[in-house]
Amino acid sequence: MRTNQEVQIRDPFIYVDRKESKYYLYGSTDRNIWGKGTSFDVWVGNDLKNWEGPYPVFRPEQDFYSEENFWAPEVHYYKGAYYMFATFLLKGSGFRGTATLKSNSLTGPFTPHSEGVVTPDDWFSLDGTLHIDDEGMPWMVFCHEWVQIGDGEICAVRLSEDLKEALDEPVTLFAASDAPWPTSFKHKTRNTQANYVTDGPYVYRAENDELLLLWASFVDNVYAQGISRSKTGKITGPWLHDEEPLFSSDGGHGMLFHDLHDQLHLTLHSPNKTPNERPVFIELDENNGSIRRRDDESKRNR
C-alpha cells in the first residue's frame, strides 16, 4: 500500500469503478519519463489516499512502433470494452502521436488497437482524450504541440465507431494564445519565437449541460490549469476562455471526475518536476457551469 506522496506519476487519470467501489489511477509512470521507457501501470484504491500496486497494464511486444515517451494513458469504457488513449514517440518518423489500445479489464493487459497513431503522421501531437458527441459519435481531442507550431493548439478529429482511425482531417478548436491566462516563453534551441503550450485536454459536461474543456499551459513558466467553454455546446465550438486559471501552483495535465460519493474532484500532478511529481486531488464546487476549488471558497468565507 502506498500513499499519494509515495506514488510518482505524471498526467494522472482516474477511472471510477462504481460496481466494485474502486478507483483506478493511470498515468505516465516510467521513471525515465523523458527518454527510453516502455510501460504503463495502474494503481488501485478504495479511497483517493491509499493505493495498491503498481500493476502492469501495458508492456509492448518487441516489434512495437515506439520505445520512448510513453505518456498520458487514459482509459474509457466504450461499447463493452476498455480503451486506452496514449501518446508514443514513433521509431520511424520521430513524430509523436496518440494511439488507441484495448482490453476487457481495467487491469489489462491492453493491446494495440489502432494501426499506429490516430493523429496525423507528420504532426507532433499528444494527449488524446475521448469525447462522445450528442449523436453518439466518437471524437478525439488532442494537442498539436508547440514544439512544431510555436503556438500550441487544441484540436479535435472524428473517429471511426471502432476507434481505430480518424475519419476526417483534424479541426483546430483554438490556440493557446487565444486564452487570456497563458503566457509565452522562448526556447533556447527550438521555436525561439514566443511559444505557448497546450497540454492534457479533458472534456467535461457540466451539470447545466455546458460543455467545458480543461487544459494545461504555463503562467510565467509555472504549470497551470484552465477551463474553456463551448458557445454552442458542441466540441467544434467556438470556444470562450475563463479569464483566470483554475489552478496555477505548479501543477497540471488534469481531469475532472465525481468520486464514489458524487463529490467533484480535479486531479493533476504537482510539482511539475521529475522525479517529484505526485497525484493531487482537489475538491471542487460546481454552480451553473462555474467551477471553483472548494478550498478557495472556504478562504473567501473566513
Strand content: over 45%
Which radius of gyration do the C-alpha atoms yield? 18 Å
Arithmetic mean of pLDDT? 95
Unreliable stretches covering 5 or more consecutive residues: 297-302
Tally of helical segments: 2
Shape: globular
Major β-sheet, in short?
5 strands, antiparallel
Structural summary, described in words:
The protein has one domain (about 1-300): Glycosyl hydrolase domain, family 43 (Tachylectin-2, Chain A, 5 Propeller). Helix content is about 5%, strand content about 50%. The protein has helices at about 145-150, 295-300; strands spanning about 1-5, 10-15, 20-30, 40-45, 50-60, 65-80, 80-90, 95-105, 110, 125-130, 140-145, 155-160, 170-175, 200-205, 210-220, 220-230, 240, 250-260, 265-270, 280-285, 290-295. The strands form five sheets. A five-stranded antiparallel sheet has the order 1-5-4-3-2, with no helix packed on it. The termini are far apart.
